[in-house]
Amino acid sequence: xxxxxxxxxxxxxxxxxxxxxxxxxxxxxxxxxSFSYSSLSSQFLENKHHFWAVVPFHYGILVVxxxxxIAFLIPRTILAWNSHPxxxxxxxxxxxAFGLLTLVGLIGVVVxxxxxxxxxNVTTPTDWILFVMLLLQTISGISVALFHPWGSAWFASxxxxxxxxxxxxxxxxxxxAAMPHLVKFHIVLAFxxxxxxxxxxxxxxxxxxNPYLWRKPQVVxxxxxxx
Amino acid sequence: MNVRSQVSMVFHLDKCIGCHTCSVACKNIWTDRxxxxxxxxxxxxxxxxxxxxxxxxxxxxxxxGWESNGNGKLDIKSTSRTKIIPNIFHNPxxxxxxDYYEPxxxxxxxxxxxxxxxxxxxxxxxxxxxxxxxxxxxxxxxDDDLGGSPIYAENDPNLEGLTEQQKLQLxxxxxxxxxxxxxxxxxxxxxCCVASCPSGALYKRGEDxxxxxxxxxxxxxxxxVAACPYKKTYFNWxxxxxxxxxxxxxxxxxxxxxxxxxxxxxxxxxxxxxLYDADRIEEIAKLPDDELVEGHRSMILDPFDPEVIxxxxxxxxxxxxxxxxxxxxxxxxVVKWKIALPPHIEYRTLPMLFYVPPMSxxxxxxxxxxxxxxxxDLFHDIDASRVPMKFFANLFxxxxxxxxxxxxxxxxxxxWHRRAExxxxxxxxxxxxxxxxxxxxxEEAEEIYKLTSLCTFEDRFVIPPMHREQAxxxxxxxxEHRTETGFGFVGGPQRGL
Lengths: 227, 497
Description:
The complex is a heterodimer.
Chain A: H1 2-32, H2 50-73, H3 75-81, H4 85-115, H5 117-121, H6 125-147, H7 151-167, H8 174-177, H9 181-196, E1 220-221
Helix pairs in contact in A: 1-9, 2-3, 2-4, 2-7, 3-7, 4-6, 6-9
Chain B: E1 3-12, H1 21-30, E2 43-47, H2 59-62, E3 66-68, E4 74-76, H3 81-84, E5 104-106, H4 109-113, E6 125-127, H5 164-171, E7 179-183, H6 192-196, E8 202-205, E9 211-213, H7 223-227, E10 233-236, E11 241-244, H8 249-252, H9 259-262, E12 269-277, H10 281-285, H11 292-299, E13 300-301, H12 306-314, H13 319-326, H14 329-336, E14 353-356, E15 364-365, E16 372-373, H15 389-396, H16 401-422, H17 428-437, H18 442-453, H19 457-460, H20 468-475, H21 478-484
Parallel strand pairs in B: 1-14
Antiparallel strand pairs in B: 1-12, 2-7, 3-4, 5-6, 8-9, 10-11, 12-13, 15-16
């Protein structure tokens, strides 16, 4: 019985609290404190190791996150792709490779911030909490890939319906109740990270989309007379 | 014809004494904040020298400005549109703090708190970034007045193309020469910083052409810092926002000259409106190197031409601004007299700050104990000046000497003319011949003389009416705005967590 309540709390209540916080606070922060929306790059203070830490981390985490999103959005296509074992192996191995790339980059980021006093000086407590969360999340993700293989298959068949049930406001914990503890940990931490997101520098992810590739090179602002 | 107005500037280098009053005035107003300590929106460099940031003119290193991509189009050298996406996490051409200097203060507390000892306590330098003790290796104007010439002056990128003899002459003690180059943002017509910003945070104000960074839209992608060939956008390491010279627009809007202009001791700075044809920006920016200076000048329109006035009115430029453009000292220096030139126009950003190249002493040699001058004339041949023409050409003529020689020859002719007028030791006929050779009339020489030497505050700064009330009218009733302005709960900008 208590297990049931715990599952209800972790996989129904917590996700809603985190998602609600995410949507409310990102919009609130964007409207009220748009000055604080920044990637807070430290490349200016330290440019020698920056490339080797930041680039692997970003490419790793972007591909891994995109993989999760695709499996969430189009689970049937993923299952169809996996129908051939070789294609399943290719998918799993590349996912693991990008997971490891993320980990290597993240460790680089943390070591760089810790070892250089200049950058340490502009690293806030929020950043350190975020680094711990991301490290745990990356390590647990890699562990899931190693100890509970074929995640691309069972994510699409079990977790995607669970996530959809959350978004359809009809939560169904039966999909996750039987999951191993490691997977549960990964899911809970994912929601916590989403909830913490609007209070961190992660908000810079949300402001990447912009018309740069389409706009005219020169930007001119008028008092209002034209455009 | 798409007429636009631009607040433009002329710096008369022949009058600059290198006192740095401009830099200090600017610093006290705009960059005396955490994260901005190392920034100098206005700085004064000694030439020859490597400047600030070190060797900013070396675009092999910094990759600033525009380059032709071979299809007849211009691309940003550092991160073009297609290159910015894969490079957004790490800008490959971003200068780091080491290229500027690490700001420091002194541990003054130690003077009071040091334990009793046999030595006087000292205030050691400490970093303004992490508070650690630092060994100061360089700072702003480390190479002021040719200090450390073997490291700095001899590595000036403008020395390219000079003969070994000319280079030697610039650095041997009894023959050396230098001049000052004060620099602010050029508020370009084809700004690289604006074009490079992935967020679209940088923009040019339509009414006066001032280039600004929207602090609420800047996301620290750092493209502008790498893209500006003059390195006049700076990255605030604390707030994670780029910042730049704003030409003191709050002062301009209230009819005051920018702080660096206002405080200039040598009165070298001129400010006024130029009208230009915005339809020609792209065409001019693509011209071959040797046509750039003339092409740039040809974009600037005659504010007395009835057709220009009619078109300006059609573009919404007010009568006050047109009238201001007619009195603009910048128009006189740049278009009418052609003695003010844009810096490094080969970067193709079309800068709107122009420099009057300085005169320099005659070449000299010291074979024995006494110094021999190459010319005994007080007003010697321009080509015998100590600063080689090629050096000026690299700075102000995209490597071509013609425009620089024209400007210097005219300045020299004005001196001959005034010498004939006031001292009388120069023969009038000779002075007239000099004027003729320099494509100058007596009347023009008098005008140049007056605006150079006898200029009042009002002559130097012809500030156009900015019509901010029009901007306010867009939002609310101006009278209502007047009663409310300054009140409310708008918090200051806060760094993100």
